[in-house]
Amino acid sequence: MRIFAEAWFLVFLTILLSSGKMTHSVSYDYFATTECLIEPKKAQYGGGIIANPEFNYSMEGWNVFGKGEIKQGISENGNKYIIAHKRTQSLDSVSQKVQFQGQLYTFSAWIQINKGSENVAVIFKTENGALIRAGRVIAKNGCWSLLKGGVFANFSSQPVEILFESKNINVELWVDNVSLQPFTMEQWRSHQDESINKERKSKVKFKVTYANKSAIKGAKVSIQQTQTTFPFGCGMNHYIVENKDYQKWFASRFKYTTFTNEMKWYTNEKKQGIENYTVSDSMVKFTKQNGIRIRGHNIFWDDPKYQPDWVPDLSPDDLREAAAKRINSVVSRYTGQLIAWDVMNENLHFRFYEDKLGENASSEYFSVAHKLDPSTRLFMNEYNTIENCEDENSNPANYLTKLEEILSYPGNEGILAGIGVQGHFGSEEPNLAYMRAALDILASSGLPIWLTEVDVGRGPCQLKE
């Protein structure tokens, strides 16, 4: 059995999200914001290793990348910034070279464009021409948005060029208050340890007395932990119904779970009109008997490949009717028995229901799920939001934009919502700096963040079981 593959971890990410300030360590008192500001905030860490980060010395230290042009801009309040204009390619922008030393780097910059709204990325261009995307933001006209990211420089010391990317070459890129701060792994771990001590530990005093409140001298106190409040779980599949060893192994380790396939539509209704919840009901019974809490996964999946075989050929009217039956059936069946539902899975990468039923499909199904089970938290569940900055579809800014669209839909204001981020990592070391920035951006929503799916590619030193 692969314990870590296809595991589902439900965690509050206090280590990654907590703030704190340490000398020569990771300071995150400078939190991300999705708010667009009239004037940008000062450069984090004073700009770090960036030369002239706030453009107080005109454009000194900055160059044009590509075939466009750059110039200085000044706001009515006297704030100075730099503008990339007359762009002919997506990478035409401002740039600056820095020396990387094989460390963790946090990055931030304030971005604005001269019209509309566009996705803007920061890119590190290495000596061999590799382009490493390290963060994204939806930049707008008329206000400044914070682009926050980071990179794990797991290559040898070399000069790296910082530049910005927008696929719309007709917009000007305005950049201000840029910061690039290096950290050693030891500094990063030092902050992590401080965060653990601050957020996950506390001192407890016991006062042992007789019934008359007088102190008991020499009392011995024994403490035994009976349960944990830190949600940590693992995926569970249908083999657990009959396998006693699997049951014993699971129940002795986990108090949270998600069924890998047994609550999905293509399992519950393989043939139209014939529903079968026998296996999922048995699994729910087992979890209740063992005090294991369940995340519901999923009501719908927006990927066309993962519909019941009979669904893709339905007309829009027939699909709407079948989907209404599906959501009413599965949510009503397990109302009050789950801690969460993934309502529309991976709706940033795919749009099966939006293409068939209209742009508000996700919003409408969140509304229905909430009415059927109002006390259960409802999630958008996506991949590559924290683990891969190269994926433009599901970056944190796009995730929050879609979630805001769902929650602002008429009737959805009171939904108990949560952010579900998957974590499908390769065998190489993950980009901790980017993950930290991505989680910080998501945390600006004020909603709980759950790491909902985790698997790690098999590496050369991975133990087999």
Briefly characterize the structure.
By secondary structure, the chain is of the alpha/beta class.
Structure description:
The chain has 465 residues and is an alpha/beta fold. It is 22% helix and 27% strand. The chain is built from 10 helices and 17 strands. It has helices at 14-17, 185-199, 244-251, 265-268, 278-289, 316-333, 352-357, 361-372, 396-407, 432-443; strands spanning 63-65, 69-74, 80-85, 93-100, 104-113, 117-125, 131-140, 145-152, 158-165, 173-183, 233-236, 256-259, 293-301, 340-345, 377-382, 417-425, 449-456. A 7-stranded parallel β-sheet has the order 11-12-13-14-15-16-17, covered by helices on one side. The chain has a 5-stranded antiparallel β-sheet with strand order 1-4-9-6-7. It has a 5-stranded antiparallel β-sheet with strand order 2-3-10-5-8. A hairpin with a 5-residue loop joins strand 6 (117-125) and strand 7. It starts with 13 loop residues before the first helix and ends in a 9-residue tail after the last strand. The model is unreliable at 1-25 (pLDDT under 50).
